[in-house]
């Protein structure tokens, strides 16, 4: 990132739905201040809260493919074709030079529209098991960037590159936790179920929290906004929030996280060197969260429990054991940090620059 004056290069970023898709794209956009960026998303998703104050947001209607082929699949394909035409029009009228996408449903029309116009597309896949759209459409992209080295196995060898997953810039500098008044010396447990929260995980955390609080810890619990019992536990050292903006400050301060295993949070836990107990979302497509979590467990950065096997007693005991063992937590923190790719956003931004400049070797841009 040298010259920050807008170059007139127009880039469309297609990222939608969850924090796991949006934040890596936002982190990469931060590294492209010289580009004129506009965003493609869906009207009722998280991007409508996160994006418009930074970039113009265009929305289209898209949904995922069904597992079984039937009438509904035909309807979805018909809608997909409509979305492709809409994105083609947007790309042409806006004179965009290329597309960056972080996968998911929005990626399909974005990739198909851009490639049909001969524009370069950089696709980032953050999960250990690539999603359906990535598997089908990676072959059409100029470059495919992946979050885990293992992800590359299922993708076109010559154009796939491991860059890690970008995190927002606050994660890479000390960020104070100013809006939460937590005494500096107390152990802090952070409970997080991804950007939307996780009701089953919330229940487990609330069942265990009284014992953790009694042991002297504070708990910050990010519940999401759809848990009807989110405020059922009252304690002066227990803070329940539907969503918290300063995740960087929170994870840097945390002694331990109890978390789902979305690629975004895992990457952030690595960058902040936060030990974790991971409980993968059991219904994630192709169980990708278990595969994501495996990388953390493999180096000893975290413990992984399947939700179906985990009782509140087990979770309570495991957390208490770690609370009382700062040396172990320090080792785990060190191992978590060993997984961090701190310049992932710069690497992905570089791929975008190269692709739009048509200098990608082995690619089709
Ligand atoms: C349920 C599900 O299928 N989730 C998927 C979704 O991510 P999902 O958004 O559920 O979870 P991730 O862990 O990937 O990302 C969560 C993001 O939201 C942020 N955050 C969270 C809570 C909060 O209060 N404030 C906040 O800023 C986190 O810092 C992180 O950046 O896409 C990811 C990337 O494809 C997948 O790996 C996840 O499996």
Key phrases:
single chain, 365 residues, alpha/beta, Rossmann fold, 2 domains, 7-stranded parallel sheet, 6-stranded parallel sheet, 12 helices, 13 strands, 38% helix, globular, disordered C terminus, binds uridine-diphosphate-N-acetylglucosamine
Topology of helices and strands:
Elements (H helix, E strand, L loop, with lengths): L8 E6 L4 H12 L4 E7 L5 H4 L6 E3 L11 H23 L4 E4 L5 H10 L4 E5 L6 H6 L5 E4 L13 E3 L25 E5 L6 H16 L3 E5 L15 E4 L5 H7 L2 E4 L3 H10 L3 E3 L9 H11 L3 E3 L7 H12 L2 H13 L5 H14 L8
Parallel strand pairs: 1-2, 1-4, 2-3, 4-5, 5-6, 6-7, 8-9, 8-11, 9-10, 11-12, 12-13
Helix pairs in contact: 1-12, 3-4, 6-10, 8-11
Q: What does it look like?
A:
This protein has two domains: 9-165 and 342-357, Rossmann fold; 171-338, Rossmann fold. It is 38% helix and 15% strand. It has helices at residues 19-30, 47-50, 71-93, 107-116, 132-137, 199-214, 247-253, 263-272, 288-298, 312-323, 326-338, 344-357, and strands at 9-14, 35-41, 57-59, 98-101, 121-125, 143-146, 160-162, 188-192, 218-222, 238-241, 256-259, 276-278, 302-304. Strands 3-2-1-4-5-6-7 form a seven-stranded parallel β-sheet, with helices on both faces. Strand 8 (188-192), helix 6 (199-214) and strand 9 form a beta-alpha-beta unit. Helix 1 packs across helix 12, helix 6 packs across helix 10 and helix 8 crosses helix 11 (326-338). The longest helix has 23 residues, at 71-93. It is globular and about 60 Å long. Uridine-diphosphate-N-acetylglucosamine (UD1) binds next to helix 1, helix 8 and helix 9. The site of uridine-diphosphate-N-acetylglucosamine (UD1) has 25 residues, from helix 1, helix 8 and helix 9.
